Amino acid sequence: MLTKIHGNKPLQMAAGLGIGFLFGFLLQKGNVTEYDVIIGQLLFQDFTVIKIMVTAIVTGMIGVHLLRDLGLAQLHPKPGSLGMTLVGGLIFGVGFAVVGYCPGTITAAVAQGKLDALIGGLVGILIGAGLYAHAFPWVARVMLPKGDFGPLTFPEFFKMNHWRIIIPLAVILISLLAVLEGAGL
Known about the structure:
This protein is mostly helical. Helices cover 74% and strands 3% of the residues. It is built from nine helices and two strands. It is globular. The termini are far apart.
């Protein structure tokens, strides 16, 4: 089954497009394409974004590892470093704070016809990508290699079975969701 999908680029593209539309639809239904919801998150007044992200993390974490254990998926972790995390976090964080959208919510908001997302967000992404591409040779040489830890996952780092990390982490994250819901956040 994996090889049928892995070797079929048109099927991969169609699946990606369909999943992308579904993702955007769910973002819109979750109200995370609303500027006020996103700003509310940044001001620690509305935790809708965190609740959606934590739900996706728990679902994805369990789902990916279950599929892997069943032989239906393979993990291909990308190498990482503290420099990559810092640069990516700064670019994402500054854009998120200035525009009030992340790349996924910008796309969904543009699809809804929101001009602030189109003009500020999509144009900002294109300008930011161009600036990053221009600076990339320097960033790749000076910043990205700092604190390189390779393609290491937490279970590999801790030399543990992945379920010994996933299950307690899922319990902690689900407890966080319960606390946020219980507090009316």
